[in-house]
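Collaborator request log, item 7. Partner lab (contact: R.S.) asked for a structural prediction of LysR family transcriptional regulator to inform their binding assays.
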Amino acid sequence: MDRISHLRVFVEAARLGSFSAAARKLDLTRDQVSKQIAALESEVCAPLFARSTRRITLSSGGEALIGRAEAIVTMFDEALGELRGLSGAPRGSLRVNAPMSFGQRYFAPLVAGFHAAYPEVQLRIDLDDRFADPAKTGADVTLRIAQLPEQLDLVARPIAVAPRWLIVSPAHLAAVGEPTHPDQLSRLACLQYGEAGAALPWQFRPADVESPVKVLSVTTRGPVCSNNGDLLLRAAIDGLGFTVLPAFMVQDDIAAGRLHHVLQDWLVTPDIGVFALYASTARSSPAVRAFVEFFGPRLAEALVVKRSP
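Returned to partner:
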């Protein structure tokens, strides 16, 4: 078992490029990781990493070992997962990554129920609005609200479709007037989602499927750009401009009169989805299966979009 443990530490350190990150992923101390790597290097009689003050990279010996080490750890985990699936309940540590606003609003209220159902699974939850590739961050499951790329080396379990709406506060709408066409947004204050200076144009298509118009792309500007949906929601309610957010996130404020859904004859495109992402090798993990089977239908129910008034 020591050799498997040493190989697992080696694989995680190589994948994450850091002994500290590998320690966090494996619930070890950095010193324990260093000692296991040193023990493996002593056994193979070769250094496995080139170390610097900032990061680690594989040495030629490490490059020669990494492929076989990954295969051995994967086969061991798959076999262990299958045996555990036959013999007992899910257990162990499960690292989950989710967007900040989504995690606080929809994921957090379900955590206690999951713990009651699976008390032997210890959730390690990281909330971060940047996309976290499980292969690079060490997350076992990543929840994402996004349009996924066509080529993705992960299992993507769909949970819900998330249409987006163009919304604005009644006060701001009264001040500038209601737009009747997406092109008008280029002259209005708009609150953009994304990294500062890198927000993408908004795209719209007619709700009328028989319209000859396909997709319009509109470049917008405004006083706020953020990668956090709750901040943009607050800014819109406070009257700073128009913004595009998932319908499930804004529908309660629309029903309460704090926001108005505009340009309803146009659909923000493309629709985005809510997905649970995990490595194909995690299919046999009882903890990952339990997570997806528990949270999937409950999140789907929580994200049901009511018809806009």
